[in-house]
Amino acid sequence: MICASAEGLEEPCKRKDLGDGAYGFEYYPNTPGTYSITITWGGQHIPRSPIEVKIGAEAGQQKVRAWGPGLEFGVVGKSADFVVEAVGDNVGTLGFSVEGPSQAKIECDDKGDGSCDVRYWPTEPGEYAVHVLCNSEDIQHSPFMAEIVNPPAKDFYPDKVLAFGPGLQSSGLAVGKPTEFTVDAKQGGKAPLKIAAQDGEGAPVEVQVKDNGNGTYACCYTPRKPVKHTAMVSWGGVNIPDSPFRMNIGAGCHPNKVKVSGPGVAKTGLKAFEPTYFTVDCAEAGQGIKCAPGVVGPAEADIDFDIIRNDNDTFTVKYTPPGAGSYTIMVLFADQAIPMTPIRIKVDPSHDASKVKAEGPGLSRSGVELNKPTHFTVSTKAAGKANLDCSFSGPTKGEAVKDFEIINNHDNTHTVKYTPVQQGPLGVAVTYGGDPVPKSPFSVAVAPTLDLGKINVTGLGDKMTVGKDQEVTVKSKGAGGQGKVAAKVTSPSGKPVASKVEPGLSPETSQVKFIPREAGPYQVELTYDAVPIPGSPFNPTAYPVSDPSKVRCSGPGLERAKVGEKGEFIVDCTNAGPAELTIEIISDSGTEAEVHIQDNGDGTYTITYIPLYPGSYTLTIRYGGQDVPNFPARLTVEPAVDASGVRVFGPGVEGKGIFREATTDFTVDARALTQTGGDHIKTLISNPSGSRTDALIADLGDGTYSVEYTPYEEGPHSVEVCYDGSLVPKSPFRVAVTEGCDPARVRVHGPGLKGGITNKPNKFTVETRGAGTGGLGLAMEGPSEAKMSCTDNKDGSCSVEYIPYETGKYNLNITYGGQPIKGSPFSVPVSDSVDSTKVKCLGSGLGTNVRANVPQAFTVDASKAGVAPLQVRVQGPKGRLCSACVGSGCDGGGVLRSLCSGVVEPVEVVDNGDQTHTVNYVPTREGPYSINVLYADEEIPRSPYKVKVLPTHDASKVRASGPGLNTSGVPASLPVEFTIDAKDAGEGLLAVQITDPEGKPKKANIRDNHDGTYLVSYVPDMTGRYTILIKYGGDEIPYSPYRIRALPTGDASKCSVTGV
After folding, report:
1. For residue 497, what are the domain limits?
2. 243 & 159 share domain
3. In which band, very low, low, confident or very high, does the pLDDT at 901 lie, cut at 50, 70 and 90?
């Protein structure tokens, strides 16, 4: 091998025998340029020899460096990984290329910290040149020559090798402290482990590896510089998952080098509420607070610190002592206490709580209301600086106040606001610098919330009497507040009137007393807790003293009146002075008539009243609370009508057999007064206890009324009956109500009494209204036990259900009060369940080809419907009205009825023995028929069936066809035939008449095919026209008569006669 420079100078080469016929060469070019390398074997050039190699200038200052296993070796099919790291800040543009036996895909992952992970995938073994370019030029040592080999045949899984441990964590590592990590290759197969590590300056870091003998490796290294470190772990030349690992190495933590100084940590000279500060110097302490500003401070502080970070690794800590006393300050660096701590300081007081004054409505013993905002003022002039605080204690647990707020007025005063939420005594503790102020705690009585709507004023009307004591009652129950009532009275002349307010006889009431001395309008102002009471001021008028003896009464309504009519009289108080007029009109039975008093405005009053019941009344008239002359007086009220003609009768008034809780009734016959009924009857039923019993009055519309009532008490009852307010004869009726019952009054009804169905509920109703109080008994005897249930309907009736399980006759026993009711026991037939909806009908007798006078049939299938009687009714069309019916008043009897209402055909129903029936009938007329099929007395589905009955025969439906009717001719002398189709033509006689050309009849043979068709044959024995006449039921069929020509058959000239 000869290596020559561009000038032709040979460079020395070193040859190495690598064994197996392989040789390696080394040379060191001294000048840049193109070199020529000549390689010969046995004196002959090998392929590509001589080889030209371009030598660049010596590498200068490097901007990047590259390292990692992928630059030295790799495995086919696996990624070959390496790391590229920046050297300095100005990196330039990176580029990569790989030359070798195969084209390898390249990927680059920028990590954002001045480094990137590069990987390429070789697909064939051999030597690869890996170029790392910076600004389009190879970096130092580029290209890197990597030897790529085939993967081992088996047991090689680098992707299953794991590396973990504190030595690979991205943070928490310090300079000079050994750290460890583990490589777990238990699942990786067999291959060599290689670990390469460098610090951020490119210096290699030694990693000690210990094989634990179990597929794991213990790795240890000691970082020497506080810079980023990178480690790459490969297995058999292939990078393992998560490799490369990047670790940030810290400078370490030295709490013992932290210094604290300043007035805020001085042992004396500190005063409460005066801001102070101290400085924390961490310049020589390493990592800790510099990495996490704001974490320095007392671990369990009761002082708020303001920590300010300075640019020189020092911190200024500001705070204000919240009060006098001893404090402990802790300073932590990286969660470790520095040697100077704990620092103990003494804070002297800076205030004098005895000079603080607190006053205002919120501290008064009265005047504070529940849920009403209030306030008070605290003056701290000459008291020094300190924190003002307030606390509240209520009569019960929980919050005593809400909306609490202390407002600094910045003039050495504070406003304290709060809203009490508990009624009762409230304690208000006010402290200044932690010391109670004078008179603290204050005791405040919290009154209920003021609600003026609950105040009621009585005794103050529109009119007063001069010289008479006036007592006004103010009821304040539930009005809340302090309950202070005040009054101010002004006379008509504008002068104040002496008044006084005294406690009332009952709690939460007050009496306002005054005496009006002059006549005229007054003004009375009433306040509650200094707030005007609703309606205040009141304006009553004082009048001279009244004299009831001067009241005069007149008018017709003072002597007599009539029920339902207005009575009227006049009360003249003109000379009696002002006073209150009261009138009462009460009957001897205690009924009060409604009275209306109309003030006429001239000292007189118009009195009207309407009495509702006849009888004697007492009329009382009072003026100013005293009876007027000639009163009370008696007043007679006459009935509005004469009810003597009204009759009342029935058990409800006759008093026989009336039981408690049993409805009874009676009848009111008022036909003597009304023939059309109306709202005339009223009843009043009084019980022994004095209570009333309601009655139900039914107007029958003919002047009679049915009245029902149910007594609920035992003993004598009074039944009062009135017609338009007038008692009817014998009213009130005296009725005795007793305990007991009458089974004869019990009524039963319902389908379950007539018959029952097996395995299904059968219902009936038992009504005990009017039968008294007794126990209802039910029992059913028969072929099987029947399940029974009874439901009380709460209306005097019970709903009963029973379920029998076998067919047959059952006896239903019903008792009331232990005695059988009328009709008991009841005989109830029980049959199986019948469902008429499951009955089906089919057959030609219901079809579309039903003919008159032709027997018809259809089948009724009840195999799935149960056993029940079958009824079939076939009704034909209505007949024409005969001359005898028109205008004769025919009642449809006999034959005429059959013609007018439609013929009913006889029906034969044949039981086939398998729950099917054959129904036979013969329709005698054509037209619409209706066929009703009832099963168990119920129409089955689609019943009634509508059937259109056609005529007995219809020649128009007959068709004739065949060669014997060929219009183009038939062969003479040869038999021919044709077919007649009468399937749809009904029942009729077929007649065929054939006439030959000479008019003579020709025999026709007719054969019945028994399917509604006929075959007709004949022999036209001569040529000429034949006439074929076809009738069905005496009528010609369509196209009849047919005219058919018989044509010659054969050639007569070819016939020969012999033997003549």
Report:
1. 452-542
2. yes
3. low
